[in-house]
Amino acid sequence: MIKQAAELVAEANAAVATLSVEDARSLMGQDDVQFVDVRETGEFARGRIPGAVHAPRAMLEFMTDPTTPLHKPELAAGKRLVVYCASGGRGALAAKTLRDMGIDHVHHMLGGFGAWQQGGGPVET
What we know:
CATH architecture: 3-Layer(aba) Sandwich
Number of helices: 6
Strand content: 15-25%
Largest sheet: 5 strands, parallel
Low-confidence stretches: none
Number of strands: 5
Structural class: alpha/beta
Shape: globular
Mean pLDDT: 96
Distance between the termini: 42 Å
Order of helices and strands: HEHEHEHEHEH
Helix content: 25-40%
CATH superfamily: Rhodanese-like domain
Strand order of the largest sheet: 1-5-4-2-3
């Protein structure tokens, strides 16, 4: 059976914890929290949540896996991961992928970076 992208996103949203922008903002600056931006490089360059690690969705599995040369230690540090993209779809899929890879403390930020900006969240370039 072929699944549409919307179905995959809905399944991902059902499988991972979702945070509102307000809840995500309340986690900023905590030592045990790491924001993860899964947008493409050009999107990331135009602005991001301060302190976020960049792990583009297309490379996420390789950046998460400590056995690959692309591994980013921030993704395996045992911290609570808050994943976001531009509007929510890629972030949900990425959060589910991280769960599937054995990372237990992963959350998806509802509405992504767009909702973050609309909610007045801090942005760095």
